[in-house]
Amino acid sequence: MADIIFLVIIFLLEFLLFYFLPTLNGQQMLFGIVLKNDDFQTYGFPILQKYRRDLIFVAIGCVGGLALLYFADSLSPYSLATAYILETALIIFLLFKSLRQTWQLRDKRTVSRLATPLKPRHLLDFTNLWWELTIILLMIAPFAVLAFYYPQLPEIVPIHWNAAGTADGFAKKSFSSVFFLPILTTILQIFLIIIKQDIIQARFRVPAEKAEKVLSLKEISLLANIGMIDWCRLSCGVLLGIVALLVLSPILPVAAALNSFLWLSLIIMLLGMAFYLYQMNLVNREIKSLTGQITFQTADEMEGWKDGLFYYNPNDTAFMVEKPGGMGYTMNFAHKRILIYLALFVLPMFLTVLDFVLMKSR
Amino acid sequence: MLIIIDQNDSRPIYQQIADEIRFLIARGELAEDAPLPSVRQLAGDLGVNLNTVATAYRELQNDGLLTIKHGAGAVVSSRTSSGKSEDNLRKPLRSALAQLFLAGLSWAEVMNLVVDEMREILRDER
Fold it and tell me: Average pLDDT of A18-31?
């Protein structure tokens, strides 16, 4: 029963998030895309209404299906998971569809007089020593603790846990089954620091009109983005560090304590991210009231956007560019640097498969 | 301390970048030893080719205003450009003044413009 209530709450939260997502950026904006005043009333509003109506259908359909299963007494964890995945897939489809329609209505004004500060932006200028030391400590500590307890671990160790913190997957004790998570965390941390470096080097530029004022606002936005990635690095370190230690639960009575701490740190992580997003949102509203736009593209750059989602522009030297709504960045998929991202994305999957194959062969 | 580039300007982009940096150095906003952004950063910010920015930096280096160290990036090395004879300095001034007169401005108007621009450059050093 507790499982079902938990899932219903997640369902509801997801529904609410996606219901209000298109208009979170404020007036005359849909799905993070700036529309012209009249277009919002005549074309934008119907898209929003249709999106919300379809969203309600999806929610009712999924919850209704689950309720039917519940009363037929055949509700299993698998049907819950299927419903959840199905709902998410449908919502993402709806989102893409509406985003695509909205993108056709975007404010197509471009800039040709550009201003940028003549100031180098280095990773070190945005680095706090104590913060970095904490992250490194969080990265190394699980290795040390696990290595210390490794001889005492039983031959069969837990490798997977459910939401309540009870182990539901087991494997033979081996280097990979014990140290898999710390290794994954290390890869993730490397990935995140590369993202941070790229965000610092992301295109930082405004139109020449009102340049000083808009630049100072964009600077706050950049700092919020960097703050968010730093926050993610620290909280991912804490979260995954805790999960890595769960493998010790057969020999140490840590599972219950770690599990509650895990949920607490997950909530704190999400709250921190919400704070930074809120900050970006405030800044964006101010930029919009000053200039009527949030991000500024030259005519060349405008060509690179595909449906307002992907940016593919071989003529652009920049790798990271602001998303059209000004909340976060996206990559120029035509840039060579994308290969690093691809490699770091594929590496964990490769390791997982390798681990699996090795385990089978033993 | 920002530079402004206009895509519709008749001057090529690299020229605009070099001129803007020269202006900032002349005005004292970029002091000696002030570091400049890397070629990659500035090119990405302005959405121009890497070569465009590199050409601008090289031109300033030839003027003796910048030193470009490998790995360390470009640094303002001096606030006086070297190796330009008076004749060479006079030529661009003459063509700029000729353009102003051809545009139909009177003696007094041209004088005002020149004084205005000089004030803009030397505003901290008067």
Answer: 82
Contact B1 A118 (CB under 8 A): yes
**Are A192 and A269 spatial neighbours (Cβ–Cβ below 8 Å)?**
no
Look up the ipTM and state it: 0.83
Measured from the Cβ of residue B67, the count of other Cβ atoms closer than 10 Å reads: 15
Mark A26-40 as b/e (b = at least 16 C-beta within 10 Å): eebbbbbbbbbeebb
pLDDT of residue A343: 92
Residue B21: closest C-alpha in chain A: A118
Residue type, B14: Y
* Closest of A302, A313, A299, A308 to residue A103, by C-alpha: A308
Using one digit for the tens of pLDDT, what is the confidence trace for A263-311? 888 899 999 999 999 999 999 989 988 988 889 999 889 889 988 788 9
Across B7-114, the runs of DSSP E, i.e. the strands, are: 66-69, 73-76
Task: Report the residue of chain A nearest B34, measured CA to CA.
Answer: A119
pTM over 0.80: yes
Residue type (1 letter), B45: D
Question: Is residue B121 classed exposed, middle or buried when 0-12, 13-18 and 19+ CB atoms within 10 A define those classes?
Answer: middle
CA of A10: how far to CAs of A13, A52, A207, A277, in Å?
A: 5, 18, 42, 21
Q: Residue A319 burial (CB < 10 Å; 0-12/13-18/19+)?
A: buried
Number of neighbours of residue A129 by Cβ within 10 angstroms = 7
Distance CA A187, CA A359 (A): 21
The chain A residue lying nearest B17, using CA atoms, is A118
* A298: nearest CB among B3, B7, B37: B7
Q: Which of B71, B63, B126, B8 is nearest to A111 (CA)?
A: B8
Q: Chain centroid to CA A21: how far?
A: 15
CA distances from A277 to A19, A223, A311, A341 (A): 18, 11, 22, 23
Q: Where are the alpha helices (DSSP H) in A21-170?
A: 37-39, 45-71, 77-104, 129-149
User: What does the DSSP assignment read for A245-282?
Assistant: HGGGTTTSTTHHHHHHHHHHHHHHHHHHHHHHHHHHHH
Spatial CA neighbour of A110 closest among B115, B7, B120, B58: B7
Longest pairwise C-alpha distance within chain B: 51
Check B73 against A208: CB less than 8 A apart. Answer: no
The minimum CA-CA distance between A82 and chain B, rounded to whole Å, is 44
Residue A280 CA: distances (Å) to CA of A25, A222, B67: 10, 9, 38
Torsion of CA A119, A122, A126, A127, to 10 degrees: -150
